[in-house]
Every structure is written in C-alpha cells, then in structure tokens.
Design a protein that fits this description.
Oligomer: single chain
CATH topology of the largest domain: Rossmann fold
Largest sheet: 7 strands, parallel
Shape: globular
CATH architecture of the largest domain: 3-Layer(aba) Sandwich
Number of domains: 4
CATH class of the largest domain: Alpha Beta
Number of helices: 16
CATH superfamily of the largest domain: P-loop containing nucleotide triphosphate hydrolases
Strand content: 15-25%
Structural class: alpha/beta
Low-confidence stretches: 1-28, 152-170
Mean pLDDT: 87
Strand order of the largest sheet: 8-9-7-10-11-6-12
C-alpha cells in the first residue's frame, strides 16, 4: 500500500508527441510473458494524449489489477500514471512477447460502472476522458478495496408504516421521495428555500445505499454531521472516498457524483439549479445530468431537489412534485421591492431612503452588488426606464454610436423605446465606493467582499457589501438586499432569469421564511419582471411558463443543445464545421452556427426536433469536425452565454 502523501498524478503534466502503436521507447523489463501475466489496456494521464496502449501486468499483481485501477508505466522514456481501461485484452499491432510490463499498481480506482459513465460523459460534453477520470479517482492512493459491510439498521417503523423508517404522513417531502412512484424514476422536487432535507435522506438510506450531491463542501459537511448524529453510516467525499465500497450514504460536492457506491439505490442532487454543479474546465460536465444518467443505468431512483427547479430538471424529470402551496409560500421570506425608476440616476443615489431606514434598524445585513463581468447598463434621463429592446425582454448597450442587444443583435439609434428620449446615462457601479458610502450613511463599519478577495469579511462588521460571494460568507442575516438587481435580470445571457432567481433563493435561505423577522429587498427599475413577481409571490412556477416559451423560441437548452467555441482555433474549427454540415445538409439540417461575436466566439445550436436527442446529434457533429492545430476550447452546455 502506498503512503498517504503519494499521489497518482505528477505535479506537472508534460506534452509529448503521440508514440508509435507499441511503446518501443520504454526502458523496462522485456522478459517474455510468464504464466499468470495479464494483458491490460491503459489510458495515460498525459496532457494532449488520448490514445490507449497495451501493457503486460506481471503475475504478482494479477489479482490487484482491474478496470479502473491506477497504474504506473514507462512511455516514451517517461514514467507516467494512468488508468486500466480493459483487462485480458488481445494486443493490437504488436506481438505479445514485445509488450512491456507496468512498473506499479498504485491504487484502487473508479469501479467499472463509473468508468463506463465517465466514457459517456466525455462524449456527451465533448472532451478528453482523462480529466473525467481524474475527478472520479481517489485523492490519495488506496492499496486495496475495503470489504462490504452490512447496511446500517434503520429505526423500527411504527405499526402500519411503510417500513422505510419513521415517516410522518404529513411530511410531503419524505413521502414523495420514498413513494413507489419515485422508484427507478427521475423526480423533480420543488421545496421551500430553507427546507430540511435530513429526514428525507434518513428515510432513503433505509431503502439502500444512497448518493447525495450538493453544490458546496460546507453544506455537505453539515449534512454528514446531522446524519451521523442520527446513527446513519456516512462517507464524506472526497476524503472518505473508499468508504462508498462498504455501503451507506455517500455525500459530497460536485465530484462526489463519481464516487463508488456499493449497491446504489438512490441518487439525490440538492439545489440542482446551482451552477457550482457544472465543471468549468473542458469537458464541462454537469453533476445533475451525470446523476440522472448514473441512476438510470443503476435502476435507482433519482431525486432532483430545489427551491427553484431549473428548466433542465423539469424537462428531464419523469414527474414534478411541488410542496403544498401553504408550505412553499411559508418558506419564502417577505420580499420588499423598491422601484427606482423615479430616483435620480447615477451611483450617488444607489441607496434608497427606505433601504437605509431598514439597515439602520437591522443587526446584520448582506448587500449584493454584482459588478464583475457585467455589461454597462443605460437608463433614460427623462423617464428613468432602462434601455431595452422593443419587446422589453433584453438589455441594450452602447455600441459604435448606437444601441445593440448582445443576445439578439437588435440595433437602433440612441433612443429610449419608452419615451423616445435621447438623453441616456450610464449606470456606473462599484463595490468599493459603495461600501465606503454606506458606512458613512449608517455610521458603522461595512465590510467589503468580492469573490477575488480570497478572505472572509471583516469579523467586526455586521454589514457586508459585496458581489454574490457575500451570500456564501454567512449562514444567517436579518436583511439581504440586492442594490441593483437589474444587472442580473437583464444580463445579456439566455439563462439570466434563472441565475437571478437562484440568487434570490440563496438570499431567502439566509433570512428565513415568512415566520422569521428577516427581509429580502430588491431594488430595481423593472419591478414587473417575471422573476421579481415570482419571488414576491413565493411561487417560482410563475417564472417558468414565460421562460420556457422564450427558450423554446431560441432553441436553447433544454429545448436544444448548445456549445461555445473559443480560442485561437475557433474560426478554423467553425470553417471545418460549416464544411461538414454543407457536405450532408440533410443530416445536419437543424444545426445553426452563430457568430463570431466581437470576442471571436461562436455558438453551435441544435434545436430539438421530433424524438431525436439533440445532445447526441451535437456530440456526433463535434466528433466529425477536424480539430485545428491552434488552441481550441469547446464548452458544451455553457451556463453563461
């Protein structure tokens, strides 16, 4: 067994030219195969190399090696690490006697079912297999797979119960999760922002081994602690990676979706709408979609839980179960909307008198002002309305002496669509200056916090002002206020509405439901926006219908497949894609190439038609286009375009 400090992957990945079919450059033992030797196929963990090679596994390690095992071997005179992808294979293009031997079996790796799932994900999100396997591998070397243990014994059910632990018939969430209708199906559960899911997880573990994926490590740790105090066997990922082989509940953040589970019966994704569940590096796999596929392959129930279920979850689910209306409304806080259309434009009046009044009486407060990576907003000096497209759906920005909508390309002169005014003003925003001004208004310290700060807020300050990172800095607040929510509502992204709604759900969790004294405050110039109305009503369903109609018109996910191309080789790849499509227009009749944008990025869109899977068709197309030599990044299902 290796020591805990030994790692599979070398600190630096080295670029090498593709080797010959047989690793003839390796300087290793070339003795003839002995009885008991096994022929294995391995995938090197080497940057830029996707090719697999055949090696000999000496008889002394024959019983240790399996599909997924982590091994070390020599390749082109370098010692590299990799994964076993097949065992007992017939060598290709080389005589068995010429095969060289691996140098070490380093660790237990992903089980065979996870290896197959990783292959599916690498194709689905069009990327190399090695990065996916890296996410699925243990963080430290594990010498042997631990033995399975008997499942943890649930509490004795009361007379007349279903036998899945103590279930209160009035607890709709537990009842919906363990019901017969949920078995071997995908269920979307719409809950309140602060719903307690611990009883549901406890009931599910009584049905068998369970995998739970959450967006952040902190919440995973808290859930693990709650369940352990209830006597449930829990394995927190990634540090207890091998524990999943022994059965119980496996809990972790995004990469936990790849963790081993002894006898998978339930897969749960909490806050499935959260963008943290999507990998930023290529391949850009989403833990929610991987969880759905893993449950399908295992014949397990899959529960997608969220206060604001995404359109993707609603689309993929076999059924949608919503909390009773009284329970749902009770879970959302009292929301106050401050209409800023008649206020003076500009940064100096960022804090309304009503907001300042609330902050002076509040003990703690979190104020959100997103500025990083946002387009500059324009407002009309005459009527105060934000400058938007003719239909009012999308924000417009100044471009070459006129106005343009980045999302749709609509153009017009510098004229307000509401009152025909020509006097427009930029709304300049900044976290640093805002914190200084608010501190003077309140007469007490205001901590500044942005995602780039790298540190927590000032511990002496009860008021925090920052980007959306501030919402993750505390667990409770009397007031959460969005100083300029229009930056979110009208961002030039097709998922802007969902992303804005996600921020309000996170804020609602901090201030508590309607029974609490907390308040959610939204300052906006578009108080009639469907997101704002849904939050005020405590009913995310009000947002869905109009949003789904707009996505359907665009043919964007979940009503189609989408990929973003960027990098120096983007234009060459786009030309190659056009050539492939033109060569067989019947096969690729639904594919659209959008761009280039001013940053030389392209979008590949494939709207759904009929019963065909648009993602499968997109994967097939991307595989058919030759890659240029220049750097190229292909992000499938990008969250912010």
């Amino acid at each position: 067994m290796s020591t805990g400090s030994e790692r599979l992957f070398d600190p630096g990945q080295f670029e090498i030219a593709p080797p010959s079919p047989a690793p003839t450059g390796a300087v290793v033992d070339r003795r003839a195969p002995e009885p008991g030797d096994r022929i294995i196929r391995v995938l090197p963990d080497v940057s830029g190399l996707e090719r697999q090679f055949d090696y000999r596994c000496p008889a002394r390690w024959a019983d240790q090696v399996a599909v997924g095992s982590l091994v070390r071997f020599d390749l082109n005179r370098r010692r590299v690490a990799g994964w076993v992808t097949e065992v007992d294979v017939t060598p290709t293009d080389v005589d068995v006697n010429d095969l060289v031997a691996i140098t070490k079996v380093s660790s237990v790796g992903p089980p065979p079912d996870v290896m197959e799932l990783a292959r599916w994900a690498a194709r689905r999100w069009h990327g190399r297999l090695a990065p996916v396997l890296r996410a699925a591998s243990p963080p430290r070397m594990i010498g042997a797979r631990p033995s399975s243990r008997a499942p943890s014994k649930p509490a004795d059910p009361p007379d007349g119960s279903t036998g899945v632990g103590v279930i209160d018939d009035g607890d709709w969430l537990v009842a919906a999760a363990v019901s017969a209708e949920a078995a071997a199906r995908t269920t979307c559960l719409e809950v309140g922002p602060g719903a307690d899911v611990t009883p549901m997880l406890e009931a599910l573990q009584a049905l068998g081994d369970c995998l739970v994926v959450v967006p952040d490590v902190r919440r995973a740790g808290r859930l693990a602690g709650h369940l352990r105090r209830r006597g449930v066997r829990v394995h927190l990922q990634p540090n207890q990676w091998s524990g999943g082989f022994t059965g119980g509940v496996v809990i972790g953040a995004r990469s936990a979706v790849w963790a081993p589970v002894a006898d998978l019966r339930s897969v749960v994704v909490l806050d499935e709408h959260d963008e943290s569940l999507q990998e930023e590096r290529v391949p850009t796999w989403n833990a929610r979609d991987v969880a759905v596929e893993r449950a399908r392959r295992a014949g397990a129930r899959c529960l997608l839980v969220s206060a604001i279920p995404s359109l993707a979850a609603r689309h993929v689910a076999d059924r949608l179960v919503r909390a009773p209306r009284s329970v749902q409304r009770h879970g959302w806080p009292v929301t106050e909307v401050i209409d800023r259309r008649r206020d003076e434009l500009g940064f100096s009046n960022l804090f309304s008198s009503r907001l300042v009044e609330m902050l002076r009486s509040a003990e703690t407060a979190v104020l959100v002002l997103n500025r990083t990576g946002r387009a500059r907003l324009l407002a009309c000096r005459s009527c105060g309305e934000l400058v938007r497209t003719e239909d009012g759906r999308h924000v417009m920005i100044e471009d070459e002496g006129g106005l343009v909508a980045p999302l749709t390309g609509e153009r017009r002169p510098l004229v307000c669509a509401s009152c025909a005014g020509t006097a427009l003003k930029r709304l300049q925003l900044g976290v640093g200056r805002a914190a200084e001004q608010l501190s003077r208004l309140l007469g007490r310290p205001v901590a500044e916090l942005t995602g780039a700060a790298g540190e927590g807020p000032d511990s002496t300050a009860d008021v925090i002002l920052g980007t959306e990172a501030a919402l993750h800095a505390v667990d409770r607040s009397d007031v959460v206020a969005f100083l300029d929510f229009d930056q979110e509502l009208l961002a030039p992204r097709y998922r802007a509405g969902e992303q804005a709604l996600a921020l309000t759900a996170l804020a609602a969790r901090l201030v508590g439901g309607r029974q609490a004294d907390g308040r959610l405050v939204i300052q906006t110039r578009v108080p009639d926006h469907r997101v704002v109305k849904a939050v005020v009503a405590g009913d995310p369903g009000r947002f869905v219908q109009a949003e789904a109609a707009q996505r359907g018109e665009l043919g964007f996910p979940p009503f189609g497949a989408l990929a973003e191309i960027s990098g120096a080789g983007a234009s060459a790849y786009a030309a190659g894609l056009t050539a492939v499509v033109d060569a067989d227009p019947g096969r690729w009749s639904t594919v659209r190439l959008l761009g280039p944008r001013r940053d030389d990025r392209y979008l590949i869109s494939n709207p759904a038609t009929g019963d065909d899977d648009p993602w499968e068709l997109l994967a097939e197309l991307l595989e058919a286009v030759p890659r240029p030599k220049q750097r190229l990044r292909i992000a499938v299902d990008p969250p912010r375009v």
